[in-house]
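Thread: sanity check for a docking pose with flavin mononucleotide

Original post by kr_44:
Hi all, I'm comparing my docking run against an independent structure prediction. Below are the sequence and the ligand SMILES. Could someone generate the full complex and paste the structure tokens? I mainly care about where the ligand ends up relative to the chain.
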Amino acid sequence: MMVIAIVAVVAIASAAFVLAGNGGDRPTPVPDTPADSDVSTAVVYFSETENTKAVAEKIAQAAGGDLIRITPAIEYTSGDLDYGNRDCRSNAEDRDDSARPGIANSMDLSGYDRIFLGYPIWYGDSPKIMWTFVETYDLSGKTVIPFCTSGSSGIGSSATHLKDLTHQGTWLDGKRFSGSASYEDVRSWVAGMGMEASA
Ligand SMILES: Cc1cc2nc3c(=O)[nH]c(=O)nc-3n(C[C@H](O)[C@H](O)[C@H](O)COP(=O)(O)O)c2cc1C
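Reply from moderator J.T.:
Ran it for you. Here is the predicted complex with flavin mononucleotide included:
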């Protein structure tokens, strides 16, 4: 009996609402869609002279993601990065495809659906620490969007090399930026992929 009474009250209230109109000119509510805000984004990057960091920050702002720096277990000195010197650390790592420089920080990426993955181009490729990263972290089920900065080189096959080392995740085409890329450059790239936070 109580149930019938409740149903009757709800039906009468609904009819009255319809007859009265839906609040005049109030916009019709848009049904929930799987909005971008439902996607959890991280911008994971390695950067030694802060160019990639600057682009990573812009991506994080445009896409609404968390910034996570890949920190080397042994930081690179300026001598290590003296790429004209064949004996410097970065050059030696570049020549050694088994080199896997350690990562100091432990990252919990389990909650992220989408990973922007950034690095500087070193010797036409990604630094070997990025190889360590993709071999260490489980990217299964995630969308990976590579990006890089460089003096002039394109992204080349650097992102494909990383993808081939892991075979996990869905990798989108990567993008190279100059270290001085503007926020608008970065935002329009993010928006073009339908990943802008406010879209
Ligand atoms: C060891 C080393 C190797 C580099 N090799 C290249 C290269 O092959 N092509 C290029 O255009 N720039 C090269 N660069 C320049 C960097 O890619 C560029 O300055 C980048 O924006 C640095 O990013 P970061 O500031 O995030 O470390 C190299 C820089 C270093 C330190």
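Residues 2-20 form the longest helix (19 residues). Hope that helps with the comparison, let us know if your pose agrees.
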